[in-house]
């Protein structure tokens, strides 16, 4: 009798696990397709982002640091500093300004070795 009860409990646990997996898959799919809300603590943020995206036909894309030399240079420079520093367009060092110009014209650059 005890063995049967134990086996039934195990079956119930497996069913719960598989149903939880299905629920998680559905949530991920809804979130990916901009239908779901995601975790409760970020739902408002997600709604705001979706609203902003619906206003324009803009897209959000990821660019690796190597693809944006100016951002790469500023990020590596910021890593070395212990305090906040902000450049104005006139105060940019020569290297930064040259990379901005190259980026503005859409010219390819080769990252230094």
List the helices and strands and how they pair.
Layout: H1 2-32, H2 43-55, H3 69-80, H4 94-105
Helix pairs in contact: 3-4
Textual characterization of the structure:
Residues 1-32 have a biased composition (Basic residues). Residues 1-40 are annotated as: Disordered. This is RNase H type-1 domain-containing protein. It comes from Abeliophyllum distichum. Residues 40-77 form the RNase H type-1 domain. The protein is mainly α. The protein folds into two domains: 2-55, no CATH class; 65-105, no CATH class. 60% of the residues lie in helices and 0% in strands. The chain has helices at residues 2-32, 43-55, 69-80, 94-105. The longest helix has 31 residues, at 2-32. It starts with a helix and ends in an 8-residue tail after the last helix. The model has no long low-confidence stretch (mean pLDDT 75).
SS strand fraction:
under 5%
Assign a percent range to the helix content: 55-70%
**Poorly predicted ranges (pLDDT <50, ≥5 residues)?**
none
Number of strands: 0
Number of domains: 2
Taken from the alpha-carbon principal axes, the silhouette is elongated
Radius of gyration: 25 Å
Mean pLDDT equals 75
Total number of helical segments? 4
Order of helices and strands: HHHH
Structural class: mainly alpha
What is the first-to-last residue Cα distance? 72 Å
Protein name: RNase H type-1 domain-containing protein
InterPro entries: RNaseH_domain (IPR002156)
């Amino acid at each position: 009798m005890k063995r049967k009860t134990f086996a039934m409990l195990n079956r119930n646990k497996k069913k719960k696990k598989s149903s939880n997996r299905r629920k998680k898959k559905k949530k991920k799919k809804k979130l990916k397709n901009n239908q779901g809300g995601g975790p409760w603590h970020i739902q408002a943020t997600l709604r705001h982002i979706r609203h902003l995206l619906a206003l324009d036909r803009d897209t959000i894309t990821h660019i690796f640091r190597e693809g944006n030399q100016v951002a790469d240079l500023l990020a590596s420079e910021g890593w070395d500093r212990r305090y906040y520093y902000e450049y104005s367009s006139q105060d940019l060092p020569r290297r930064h300004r040259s990379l901005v110009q190259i980026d503005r014209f859409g010219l390819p650059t080769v990252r230094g070795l």
